[in-house]
Amino acid sequence: MRRFDVASTYDTTVDTLWELLQDASLLTKLTRFPKVRLVGDGASAEGNEVKLLIGVGPVELPWNSTITIAGKQAFCDQGKTLPFPFKRFTHVHRVEERQGKAVMVDEVTFDSYVPNLLVEYFVLRPMFQERARAFRKTLNS
């Protein structure tokens, strides 16, 4: 298992940033890498199953997760059906305030069929960088 953490700072309020995280449908609108399509309800509510299709070239692969814990400005999704190369994937999303700015903290624990370090550097890091860029663009528009 490998843990990958990232913190992205935004010039907005915690409440505004938290509101953006409440529905996975925003992820499908904002994300260019990888292309994501939501199937069904994307609410970040405890017990909800979030079903995504991840675009890899012309193919769409299922990514299903369950929101296992939801609390004040934090929730955890646990991967159930994951595309290659992932074996396991747990993602804690949290929003907090630091020095008057909103910070999105992502704590990802995963295991894969290929070396975890390769997945972190060539899949996860670019994916989270793209998401941070998209959130900044949305918040500044």
Give the structure's gist in a few sentences:
The chain is of the alpha+beta class and about 140 residues long. The protein is built from three helices and seven strands, in the order βααββββββα.
Kindly describe this structure:
It comes from Exiguobacterium marinum. With 141 residues, the chain is of the alpha+beta class. The protein has a single domain (2-140), classed as 2-Layer Sandwich (Alpha-D-Glucose-1,6-Bisphosphate, Chain A, domain 4). It is 27% helix and 48% strand. It has three helices and seven strands. It has helices spanning 14-20, 25-30, 116-140, and strands spanning 2-10, 35-39, 49-56, 59-71, 74-81, 86-98, 101-112. It has a seven-stranded antiparallel beta sheet with strand order 1-7-6-5-4-3-2. The longest helix is centred in the C-terminal third of the chain and has 25 residues, at 116-140.
Biggest sheet record: 7 strands, antiparallel
How many alpha or pi helices? 3
Spatial order of the strands forming the largest sheet: 1-7-6-5-4-3-2
Kindly state the percentage of residues in helix: 25-40%
Q: What key phrases describe this protein's structure?
A:
single chain; 141 residues; alpha+beta; Alpha-D-Glucose-1,6-Bisphosphate, Chain A, domain 4; seven-stranded antiparallel sheet; 48% strand; globular
